[in-house]
Design goal:
heterotetramer, A alpha/beta (181), B alpha/beta (536), C alpha+beta (240), D alpha+beta (174), B: 536 residues, alpha/beta, Glutaredoxin, Rossmann fold, Ubiquitin-like (UB roll), 4 domains, five-stranded mixed beta sheet, 22 helices, 14 strands, D: alpha+beta, four-stranded mixed beta sheet, 8 helices, 52% helix
Amino acid sequence: MKVRLATVWLGGCSGCHMSFLDLDEFLIDLANAADLVYSPVVDVKDYPENVDLCLIEGAVCNEDNLEILHKIRAHTKVLVSFGDCAVTGNVPAMRNPFGMDNVENVLQCAYVDHAQNNPAVPKADGIVPQLLANVRPVHEMVFVEYFLPGCPPPAARIKALVAQLLAGAVPKLEGEQLKFG
Amino acid sequence: MQLDELKAIAEKHRSSRKKIIVRTCMSAGCMSSQADIIKKNLEAEAKAQGLEADVEVRRVGCMGFCGQGPLVGWDNSGEHGLWEFVKPEDAASIIAALKGGECKVQRGDPKHPFFAKQMHIVRANGGIIDPERIEDYIAIGGYTALHHSLTELQPAQVVEEVTKSGLRGRGGAGFPSGLKWGTVAKSPGAKKYVVCNGDEGDPGAFMDRSVLESDPHLVLEGMAIAAYAVGADQGYLYVRAEYPLAISRLQIAIKQAKQLGLLGAGIFESPFNFNVDIRIGAGAFVCGEETALMASVEGKRGTPRPRPPFPAESGLWGCPTLINNVETFANISAIINKGGEWYAGIGTEKSKGTKVFALTGKIKNNGLIEVPMGIPLRQIIMEMGGGAPDGRSIKSVQTGGPSGGCIPADYLDTPVDYESLTKLGSIMGSGGMVVMDDTTNMVEIAKFYMEFCMEESCGKCIPCRAGTVQMFNLLEKITQRKATARDLAKLEELCDMVKNTSLCGLGQTAPNPVISTLKFFRKEYAELLQPDPFGP
Amino acid sequence: MAVKTLTIDGRPITAEEGATVLQAATEAGIKIPTLCHLEGVYDVGACRLCIVEITGTTKLLPACTTKVSEGMEVQTQTERLRNYRRMILELLFAERNHVCAVCVSNGHCELQTLAYSQGMEHIRYDYTFPKWNVDTTHRLFGMDHNRCVLCTRCVRACWHIEGAGTKNIAGRGATSKIITDLNQPWGDSDSCTECGKCVMACPTGALFQKGSTVGEMVHDRDKLEFIVTAREKKQWVAAD
Amino acid sequence: MSAALITPQKNRIQAVLQHASGDKRFKILEVHMKKHQFRQDALIEVLHKAQELFGYLEDDLLLFISYKLKLPPSRVYGVATFYHFFQLKPQGEHTCVVCLGTACYVKGADKIINGIQDKYKIKAGETTADNKLSLLTARCIGACGIAPAVTYDGHVAPKQTPEAALERIKTWIQ
C-alpha cells in the first residue's frame, strides 16, 4: 500500500515547493513509495479523504487558507509544517504589526498609502478571499505533528524528514537542520 | 543626650498630661474621611464647652479598625472607649459625652474579638501616641532600648539577643534576622549600611504604612540599634511615594531625633554615629526585592541582580548592607527591652513573635491586626474579621499578594506561621490578607495577579519579562472561553519554568497565584475550557 | 591564586578561585549556551540560558555569575535544563518580530544558532507581533527594535568599553526599549562617538551597519575582547 | 566625524540652559540638587522634585538634570521611564487615580474604572480631549481598609462607587 501524500500551498511564495522539486532523483524513490493525491503540482480540485501525510507550505492568511486547513486536519493522519511561513508566519506575518486585528489598516498601508497610482483598496467579494485579522503559523490554528523549518528548507532537509517518515520512524531533525531562514 | 535627660523629658511630658485624652486617628485611611477636620472641631468644641483644661485632643496613628473609620478613642482615668464612623459634625456631642452627655455616634466595643484577640508589640503605640511628637514616644519609654544597647551591650550581644528571639524577616521570606545581622556584622568592610525596606508594594497590604504613620520613631530606633550591632553609620529608609503621610511623619521624626541627639553624631554621647536618609520610591513593585531596592537607593533603575553575592556581603555601593523590612525593625526595641527569650516565648516553634496583617476584601471587619504567630486562620477570619458580609460565605483567603496563593475555606484551621502557609502553596508574605467570598471567580483573581506581575516585571530577565506576558495571554484566553486543554497544559508548563528560572523573587513567585488556584480550584478552570476539534 | 576543584557534567575540573562556572566550563571545553554574556563586558545574569544545576541547591543558577567553589558538582545539560532553555528561546521568538529569512544577520546570529542548537523547531507560544520601529537616522548604523532581545550587550559596551553612555534601556517589562540619549533618533545623538562597539556587541541583527543586506551583517565581537584585554592587561592578542 | 552631529549638541544644552535661566523653577530645582551635593545617586530624589515643580518631566528638564548631575542623558531617561510615578507627558487639569490593589479590586474598583471610561471615552492613562481629566490607576495606595479607594486631585476618598466617582468628576467638568 503506497502512502497517500499531499502538499498544500497556503500563504507563501511557493519557494518551499520549488525546493521540494529540487529533490531530484529522490522524487523517483518518493513516487515509488507514495501517491501524490493532492498538490499545487497535480490537477486535483478538492482535498481528498484518508490522506496519510501532508506537507503544508505557507502561513494562514485568509479565510480560504483556514477553511482548507481545517479540512486537511480532519482528513489527514500526519501534518508537517513545511518551511518558515508555515512554522513561524515568516514574511506573510510581517503585516501583523501594522494592524493586529485591523485588516483595514494593513490594506490601507499597502494599497493606498504606498500606492504609486490608482490608490484604492481592492474589493472583489466572493473572488478574493477575506484576509484574516492577522496571519498565524499553521500550528496555532490546528495541531501539527512535525516541523520542517527553513526559508526554504533545503532539499536535503526535506529528504531527511520525508525519508524518515516513509520508513515509519518518528522523524528527528537536529542542529543546523532546524535552522530558520 | 544622656539617660537622665531622656527620663526628664519623659517625666515632664507625662506630668503635663491632661485628665482626658481624646485620640483622633489621623492615618491615611481615616484622613480620607476628614479626620483632620474632626480633630479641629473636637479641639474647638473642647474649648467651647469649657473642657480645655481637662481634655487633650491628640493626633494619633492607626487604631486598626480602618473599615469603621474615622475613629476617635478616649481615655479617662483608666477607662477607654471608641467611636466609629465619626463625622466632623459629631464633635460637639462627643465632647459632651465626655461629661456624661448623650451621644448618638456609634460606639465601638473594645472587647470585640477584633481587638481582644490581638497582641501588640509592633503596634503597641499605634493609636495611642502622637506620631509627630517625639516626646510622646519618649514618654512611653522610647529610645531606652537604644540607650541600653549602646551603653550596656556589645554589638555582638545585640546580635545574640536578636538571634535568641527567633525573629524572622517580616518582608515575606522569613529569613532569620539574627543570622542576617551576624553575617553583616562579620563581613569585612569599613563602611556598612542599614536599609529599611518600606516599599510595601503588595496590593492589599498596608501594615508598613500604618507603622510608619503611627510610630515612626519605633522604626528609627530599631534601625539605629541594628546599625550599632552590625557596625553601620548610615541608614536609608526606602518608602513608597504612594505614602506621602508616612514620608512627612518620618521627616519630622528624623528631624526631632537629630535635634535631641538620638540620631546623628555621638548618639547618647557615645562614639556611635548614625544618620538616616529617606529615599522615596517612585512606583516600582520590584523595588521590594532587596537588590532592586539597593539599585534604586543608588539612584538607578530598580532592577535586581543575581544573588550571591548577598547584600550582607556586597550591597549598597559594594559595601556590606543589612536590609530588613519596616515591621522587622519595629520589633527590635521590644526585643532589647524585654529580652530575646521573652520574644521567643510568643508564637510557634519556628515562627516567633507576632505578625501584623492587613485584613481586607470581602470581610465584615476590615483593618489592621497584630496577632501571635500560630493563631488559626479561622480565628482571624471568622472571629476577628466576622466572616463574609451580606450573608455570603468565605471561599478563599489570599496571603502574600502576587507572590502568594489562595487558601481555600476548607483549610481555615491552618495555623498562621511561615511553614504552614508555605505548605499550602502560599506564603506569609508581608501581611496582606485579602478575603474572597463565594461570588469571587478564582481564575479572574489569578489573572489579576498575573497582570500585576506582567506590568511590574522590570524586563531584565527573559522568563519573567516574556513569560508573564504569555501566561497572562493564556489566562485571558481561558477567561474568554477560547482556550483548550492544550492551552492549560502550556500555562502549567510556563508556571514551572518561570518559577525555576527567573532572576529574582518577583518572577520566581509570579506563577504562585496560578499554581495555587489550579491546585484548589481547578474545576473553575476546567469549566472554562473549550473542545479542541483540530487538536491531536 | 588558590585553585578550586569541582566537577562539571561529571568531569573533574580545576579552576582559579574567583572564576565563574562559565569560565571554568569554557576552559575545559564544555559549552554552556549563553546570550547576554559577552567577553569584554561584565555579566548581568539576565538571559537565564546559562542556568545550571548545582548539587546542594534547589535553585538553578546562572553559570556566568556563579563563582566556582571547592567540591562543587555542576550539571549543565540535563533534560530539565534543555527544556527550560528551549522555552526561554521560544519566549524570545514570540516576543518580537524575528524573521530570520529577511534578517541582515541571517546565518551569523547568536539567537538563530542558539535556537537550532537547543532543538527548537517551532514556537509553542502565540506570537505577539508587536509594532516596533527601525531607526536608520544614524549616518553609519541602524537599529531594528523588532530584532532586539534586550540583552543590554550594546548598553554595556557603550558604557564600559567606550565610556560614552549613549545607549541605555528605557521603560520596563515587555515594553523596555534600547534608547539613544533622551530616546531620540540615533542620528541626533549628542554623545554617540560612532565607534560602532554597540554594533559589534549585538547578538542579533538588531544593530547593523547600514548598507548590509540579508545575511551580510557579521558582528565583529572578538574585537571587543581584544580592546578590553589590550587596555586592562596590556596584551595585544589578535583574535582568531 | 560630521560636524552636523556636533552642532545640535551644543545648541541643545545651551538652549536648555538659556530656557532654564528665565524660569525660577529651574533655580529651585538647582538649589535642591545642591542640597544633595549634586550627587548622582540622588537622581530619583531630584526627579521627584522636578516633577513636583513642573508637573511632568519634559525633555529639556531631563537634559538639565543630566547636565547638572553630570550623568548621561540616556541614564536619566532610563530611570525616569522605569518608575510609574514619573510622568513624561503633561497631565490634565484634574487627576482621578483609581486604586487597583487587590482589596479595591475584589470590591469593585474595576467597575469604577469602566464607569469613567465609558462616560468620558478615555482609557486608564489617558487624558480627555479638553485636557480637563486624566484617568490613572494605582497599584495599591495602602488604603485597603476603606476599599475601594479613589484619589481625586491628590485627596483619597473612601468606599467609592462608580456613581460617586462620576458625581465627583462632574464637579470638575461642566
